[in-house]
Amino acid sequence: MAESNSLAVQIVPVSQVSVVNPRIRNKKSFRELVENIAALGLKKPITVTRREEQQGVRYDLVCGQGRLEAFMELGASEIPALVIEASVEDCMVKSLVENCARRQHHAIDLLHDIGGMKQRGYTDPEIAKKTGLSLEYVRGVGRLLAQGEQRLLRAVEAGHIPVSVAVQIADADDIGIQEALHQAYERNLLRGRKLMIVKRIVESRRRRGRAIRGRGPKEASQKLSSRTLLRAYKEDTDRKRLLIRKADATRNRLLFIAHAMRELFGDERFVSLLKAEKLDSVPKKLLGRMERGDVG
């Protein structure tokens, strides 16, 4: 942030810092942050704004919730901080912008950050200007958020699919989705591995819905219902039936090939021609089936 260039670092009591824009943290990432700070110390101060209350001085956190909570986890009573002048509203916006500008943010972060700015009345151009994101990106994410398209949002954030294509998919039926994928391929937006990933995401979205359900113990137990088990059983049965059909089709093709090859190798002129062209070798397994007259 620009303020950090001209402000001196101050030491503030941890107990006097309030988090005005709280976030849910990934436990593994938070544990790594705590261990890193414990081993190497704090590399970047948190940013706060000072306010006076009847009980005394308080600080509103602008950015650095993870670092603050890591210090609290380590039992520290004070933390280095940059103290800036800002209103509560400015603190909220700066916190949202900070989260949006992080190099690795996830769909859930966009739900919290861009969605939070829209709820506070900011227009798409204003959000784009404050975050440094393109207007097309902000508008696309806004539409995906409004429609609850968490799977597509995650794909956008991971770089698997352009936001414009994700919006097309969100607004289309099955036929329209295939057309959107075809157009993306023709425009060289989705090729190779990315196209395969997006097809899997589209299929998962069709079968499981637009939202990504939580995996906490409570939610996991709630999802374990007779209806869910029946659906999982049906999906597994359908997959196995498909495998059986593919196996039967392969067996029939192999039977046809073995029969055709056996007939051809019964023709001496054909065998002589193969020998002349040095094409008379046959894989052992195929030769064995030809001799047995089956595919077993």
From TrEMBL:
Domain called ParB-like N-terminal: residue spans: 10-100
Which superkingdom does the taxonomy of this entry point to? Bacteria
- Identify one Pfam family in the record: ParB_N
Q: InterPro entries of this UniProt entry? A: Chromosome_partition/occlusion (IPR050336), ParB/Sulfiredoxin_sf (IPR036086), ParB_N (IPR003115), Plasmid_RepB (IPR011111)
Output the SUPFAM superfamilies linked to this UniProt entry.
Answer: KorB DNA-binding domain-like (SSF109709), ParB/Sulfiredoxin (SSF110849)
CDD domains given in the database record? ParB_N_like
* Annotated protein name in UniProt: ParB N-terminal domain-containing protein
**Organism of origin:** Bradyrhizobium denitrificans
